[in-house]
Each structure stands twice: as C-alpha cells, then as structure tokens.
Design goal:
240 residues, Rossmann fold, 7 helices, binds magnesium ion, binds guanosine-5'-triphosphate, 33% helix
Length: 240
C-alpha cells in the first residue's frame, strides 16, 4: 500500500484537473474543509527548533508536514503566508537562506517543517553535501511525516533535481503534493501550460497526490486551500 492510499487518496484518480482556485466554495462539505483550515491557522504558529542532524529531531508525537523544493522556490514565504505571520520563516532573495530543518508548532495539532532548498550551486561543496544528506534522510525516513508539499517555481517548471526527489519519495511511498509557486509572476495562459506539463510528469508516479496546487504568497492565492489540506492531516481540535 502506498502512503497515498494510507491518506485516503488515490493517485490514480483525476489525471486531468480543471484550473483550480474556485473563488466560492461550492458545497457545505467544501466550506467545512476550508473552515477547518482557517481555524487551524487562526491562532499563532510558534517557532519550535532548528535541527541540523537527524539525532536531534523532536519526538515523533505529532503529525508533521514539510515544505521541500529547490532553493529560492518560495518555501519560507509560503509558510509565512499560510500562518499569517510575515517573519515566522526566514525568507530571502539570497538563495540558500534556510540552512536547517526549522520546526513550527501549530497549536499542538501538527508540526510544519521548513527545509533547506536543493539545487543551490553557490554554497560550498561540503555545505551542499551536508544539507542534501540531511534533507534526503528526513524526507525518506521521518515516520510522522504525513505529506510533503513539493514546491515548483511556476516560471521554471519541474527540473531534474525535482524528479530525483520525486523518485526517492515514490520509492519510500511518502505522499507528496506539488505546489506551483509565484503564479503572480506569469500570465494565466502560462500557468495553465505549466500545470498541464506538471500533471503529465506526475501522472504515473505512485506517491504523487493527484491535485496540484497553484499559489502566490505575494497575492495570497491558493493559501486557503493549502490550509485546508494541512488541517485534514492535523490532529483534531482538542475539546471536540
Ligand atoms: N512574486 C513573488 N515572489 C515570491 C513569491 N514567493 C516567494 N517569492 C520571493 O522569492 C524569494 C525566495 O523566497 P523564499 O521564501 O526565501 O524561498 P525558499 O524556497 O525558502 O529559499 P531557500 O530557503 O533559499 O531554499 C524571495 O525574494 C521572495 O520574496 C511569490 O509568490 N511571488
Ligand atoms: Mg527558505
């Protein structure tokens, strides 16, 4: 069984998705899903710790989700948009800004992990090797990891380094969901094209979540939907 199945999703369905980001929720169920996301992030998310080696990861007592992707793709910015906190994760124009696994606590219901980017050529060789090893070990071997949001820059599309990570995740059966970032930087027609191309690249990948998310942290697009996706993976609200 793949972890896609574990999460109640089948990666075989929905090979074709309509251009998403409906402005109005359609059904009561859809409204409830988005509301669960809003509630989860209505309270402040707090920084928990930075980790540079697997041995110092927190106890695996809460579900985790993480944001992975090439350097500068917009991981830290998206975490800030989702949590409504401008400076929670360190975002920067300088690639290679995030150098550790940064843990954030979401109301003791889930943890978010901001990962160092891969594919950054200008860091020292030893640094690159260190981050790459840690990131891969984490992605492939972290038991509480419920889903990886794999970010792809909508202007650049899927690169070889992304395909490598996808293959690793397919092998270990950890569900990943593709998030196209920075859609404010390109025209709608180009967004549609990159969406279609990306769909064809994940169509036969067993651990890929079939629904690709379109986002812009700058314009706050797609953020409600990611909150809803995350809420569905979190522990239920206590007291319910
Ligand atoms: N226009 C636009 N710019 C964005 C968006 N998201 C991120 N950026 C910019 O892209 C740059 C990189 O963003 P980060 O969030 O630091 O990227 P990262 O993936 O965390 O980068 P590393 O930590 O180096 O791996 C910053 O200058 C952001 O302001 C977006 O949705 N739209
Ligand atoms: Mg970062």
């Amino acid at each position: 069984m793949t972890s896609a199945d574990k999460n109640g999703q089948s990666s075989r369905q929905a090979s074709k998705q309509p251009t998403p980001q409906k402005s109005e929720p359609q059904t009561a169920q859809e409204r409830a899903r988005l509301e669960a996301g809003r509630i989860l992030f209505a309270r402040p998310v707090t920084f928990m710790l930075s980790v540079v080696k697997m041995a110092t990861l927190p106890p695996p007592d809460l579900p985790e989700i993480c944001f992975a992707g090439r350097s500068n793709v917009g991981k830290s910015s998206l975490i800030n948009a989702i949590t409504n906190q401008n400076k929670l994760a360190k975002a920067s124009n300088t690639p290679g800004r995030t150098r550790e696994l940064n843990y954030f606590n979401v109301s003791d219901r889930l943890r978010i992990v901001d990962l160092p980017g891969y594919g950054y050529a200008r860091a020292s060789k030893t640094d690159i090797e260190k981050w790459t090893k840690l990131t891969r070990q984490f992605l492939a071997g972290r038991a509480p990891l419920r889903r990886i949001f794999l970010l792809i820059d909508s202007r650049r599309g899927v690169k070889d380094s992304d395909l490598e990570i996808m293959s690793l995740l397919d092998e270990v059966a950890v569900t990943y969901q593709i998030v196209l970032t920075k859609t404010d930087k390109i025209k709608k027609g180009e967004v549609d094209k990159v969406l279609e191309k990306t769909q064809s690249k994940i169509a036969r990948r067993p651990a890929a979540h079939p629904h690709i998310l379109l986002t812009s942290s700058e314009k706050n697009l797609g953020v409600e939907e990611i909150r809803a996706q995350i809420a569905a993976l979190a522990l239920p609200q206590s007291g319910l």
